[in-house]
Request: fold
Amino acid sequence: MKPNKYKVLLTQKSYLRLLSANLVSRFGDSIDAIAYSWIMYETTESESLMALIIGLNYVPTVLFQPFLGVLADKVHKKKIMVCMDVIRGMIVAGVISLYCTHSLSPLWLCVLTLLTSTVEAVRMPAGNAFLPVVLDKECYTLGKAADYSSSRAVELVGLLLAGWIISVIGSSGALLIDMISFFMSALLIFSIRDKEILKESDKTIRDIFNGFKEGISFFKSNATIQILALIGLLINFGIMPLSVFQTPYVSDYLKMGPEMLSVIKICMVLGMSAGAFLVPKITKIKRASLAGMAGVIMGMTMVMMFLSPQCENLIIRISVCVSAMFFIGVGGGILNVIIGSCMMENIPGDMMGRISGFISAMMQFSMPIASFICSALALRISVTQIFLIFGILTMLIYIMLLISKKLNRIG
Reply:
């Protein structure tokens, strides 16, 4: 089998159902992304407070996911995924209710954000551990690349429709579509006929902690897994200002509305799809060099985001901004596939939940820290200046990693 032939995935029936579920939920989330971010900024009316709430979003993942990853290896992953999708749908229903009754406040945003991220912290390691169950080992890289690129393509469709949907049925209607997508995802995953075999385990608290210790030991002994965690941690830290300030950046610095927010998100998705799709086809460049170049590119694009609002010509300003978003997506797509495929290649299937949960927590450890730093900096300097600082820092770090050849551990 040639590694760049995506059609082989058509033989992976269970994987295709899982992929369909992922695409359905991604479509709903893409529509929700525009409406909810605008609602959040309207509710908080503060760049600093918005950054603080978004930072809280990552706290449950950092605190709980390593232990929840251990649990994911010891229980039926499909059941966890179904239950968490249903709960996510119920949380979105709560947001709709509060918004429609004009009761949504910054405090409620904090509570709902923590609830949502806790549910995601439970589901994510189960989802990562379930993929190898429904996918043949020789298809890991192809499956990860196809999942990532197709998810970005569906997200693109959602973003293209988001403005029209919000104008026709309002922000609450957009949230309703997101809610329905979670329930549909749960049904699709429930219909998968998997052949998961669980090891016997008493599932006690001591057993969970023992599994956590096994995950720590594996991490300490595997240099490849360590560098993968470092790559994710650094990138998440470097681009965090873009995640927390995207809406105020469009509103206050580009002086545009939700339509422009949709446009830049679309450009990022296009870049992510392109980057993910190209990874299996780029065979002349080592993964280490490719990862390093992707990191440098993402840092450069943050600097471009600083420069964009300073362009007096509207066409040039928009061109710089959308180009930056496209290339930051390319870098992210490349790194996501490299990290995902390397994890599946280096982690035993029966340890995938605990290790992926631990690594995910490590990668996201920098995100609340970066968000809180952004929240504090926003009280003193402009959002664009924050972009510049983080962009330069990201470039310097990845250049150092390339020079030191530490990235060579991933091949």
